[in-house]
Design goal:
85 residues, mainly alpha, two-stranded antiparallel ribbon, 58% helix, rod-shaped
């Protein structure tokens, strides 16, 4: 996600600045991202875990709205027993 954020932000907002470097690349943002994760900043964790929660929410919602299949008992065919004499 951080690289996707850098790409979109670079196109819309302009170059990413890292300290005095006004044209820092995506690796500077990625480094800052991992520092933010290490410091426990909630906004960085939301970015990191957000896609997983979105997928989890979509799967749970799909499981709740999907029609459930009714399991029927398998059909038992009648058989003719052989007589033993």
């Amino acid at each position: 996600m951080p690289l996707a954020i850098w790409f979109v932000g670079n196109r819309i907002l302009g170059p990413y600045t890292h300290g005095t470097n006004t044209h820092a690349g995506p690796m500077a943002l990625l480094g800052d991202f991992f520092v933010g994760l290490g410091n426990g900043w909630i906004s960085y964790w939301v970015v990191a875990l957000g896609p997983a929660f979105i997928i989890l929410f979509a799967r749970v919602a799909w499981a709740l709205i999907r029609p459930r299949r009714v399991k029927s008992n398998p059909r038992i065919e009648p058989t003719v027993a052989k007589d033993r004499l």
